[in-house]
Amino acid sequence: MKKENEVSRRNFIKNTAGVAVAFSIPSIIPASAFGANDRVRVAVIGVNGRGQDHIKGYSKLANVEVATLCDPDDVILQTRAKEFSEKNPGKKVKTENDLRKVYDDKSIDAVSIATPNHWHSLAAIWACQAGKDVYVEKPGSHNLHEGRKMVEAARKYKRIVQHGVQLRSSEALQEAVKHMRDGLIGNVYMARGLVYKWRPDIGNKGTEPIPAGLNYDLWTGPAEMKPFSKNYVHYNWHWHWNYGNGDVGNQGIHETDMCMWGLGVDTFPEKITSAGGKFLWDDAKETPELLTSSFIYPKEKKIIEFEVRPWMTNDEGGVGIGNIFYGSEGYLVVKGYDFYETFLGKDKKPGPTRKAGGDHYKNFIDAVIARDSKILNAPVETAHLSSGLAHLGNIAYRTGRALTFDPKSEKFVGDEDANTYLTRKYRAPYTVPEIV
User: Fold this and answer.
1) Fold of the domain built from segment(s) 168-203+237-356+388-413
2) CB neighbours of 278 closer than 8 A, spacing ≥ 6?
3) What's the CATH fold of domain 9-166+361-378?
4) What stretches pass through the bilayer (predicted)?
5) SS3 of 267, please?
6) Domain 9-166+361-378 matches domain 168-203+237-356+388-413 at the CATH topology level
7) Residue 331 pairs with which residues in a beta bridge?
8) What are phi and psi of 401, to 5 degrees?
9) Per-residue DSSP letters for 413-425?
């Protein structure tokens, strides 16, 4: 294979706003520069929550070496390293607190990002600029602007970027989508996404000193710096706008992605409405406990409805977390990540059904080795769309009004207040770069 053009030292520093000045600047890794026998060396970035599944998933693959673990919390990092050694006798794993040092390591072929949401796009963009392929957890972005920049970076630097929505690799759900494309339930005009998860009162823990071992500046990264609180670190950041996107931007991304995939829409909606709020707990959460959103595609004559509920509730069609697709000849139910069933005609006669999973990590590694993004089940463009749909619903909720959106310009029409939510003020040096 031909080597890809190297990123110049000057342009890399300019594009990352000086973030890597303290480290040597990594050059683009040649597409053929994997280890012996096409062994891909992977670094897992963020190992407290989802990162544990990343470690487990890659460790099962014969052509992958989990080479480095990275986390700004050294207590958690060393715990994961110890666990890794115990599960993999004789294998050593390197540890780093700063992801920039991982990107400076030319022996790393790919990074797998499982940080909090506010780091996802920036970590992915820097990885692309450093010549690394990327698996990035859902949501691919914390706001719409940085999602678009991530797409541009993947294209410019010719990187393989997979979005962490594992349902895309489910053989059963691939079959379900094919049934809908082939007309099994007729004209599919509506998708409903459901996130009914148990989300209890988190209280309000106030502020306190930063715990030993945590690099809080690095953890905060591009977000606004706020006094340390256990309300943020390590999971409840999901419910604060500074770091997370509520449950529609958490569990919900699997379902927003499934809605768009099943409906066959490859653009953003033009009309968005949302309503909800906090009705149960007087706690530190900022994001709504309940949220109901509608996304309308007038040209395509399709609609997505999405609902988040946090507590006591009935299922719908047996679904608590999943999707329902409505067509002119029946409906199709998706439960979780690997099961679907269909009901046909006025009498709701049971139709095809299947339960079967897949290996999303393997799909990513296969694409990395082949240097072919067409192999990916969840390419970067779908990350921008499914994450962006959640962002649009949250913006309609936060502005408190129905919004009109232009999918081409990716801006709200005649609403500058709503447009302010499309990006954020970044905290230097953790700045999402312009990709030119």
Assistant:
1) Dihydrodipicolinate Reductase; domain 2 (3.30.360)
2) 285, 288, 289
3) Rossmann fold (3.40.50)
4) 12-34
5) coil
6) no
7) 326, 343
8) -150, 160
9) TT-HHHHGGGS--
Question: Tokens 């999901």 — which residue?
Answer: 238
Asked if 80 and 69 touch (Cβ cutoff 8 Å), the reply is yes
Per-residue pLDDT of the chain (436 residues; tens, 9 = 90+): 333 333 333 333 333 333 333 333 334 444 445 554 579 999 999 999 999 999 999 999 999 999 999 999 999 999 999 999 999 998 889 999 999 999 999 999 999 999 999 999 999 999 999 999 999 999 999 999 999 999 999 999 999 999 999 999 999 999 999 999 999 999 999 999 999 999 999 999 999 999 999 999 999 999 999 999 999 999 999 999 999 999 999 999 999 999 999 999 999 999 999 999 999 999 999 999 999 999 999 999 999 999 999 999 999 999 999 999 999 999 999 999 999 999 999 999 999 999 999 999 999 999 999 999 999 999 999 999 999 999 999 999 999 999 999 999 999 999 999 999 999 999 999 999 999 8
Residue 200 is encoded by which pair of tokens?
Answer: 């209890």
Q: Where do the structural domains in the chain lie, given as residue ranges?
A: 9-166+361-378, 168-203+237-356+388-413
Range 223-244 burial, b when 16+ CB lie within 10 A, else e? beeeebbbbbbeebbbbbbbbb
Query: How many Cβ atoms are within 10 Å of 24's Cβ, its own excluded?
Result: 11
pTM for this entry = 0.91
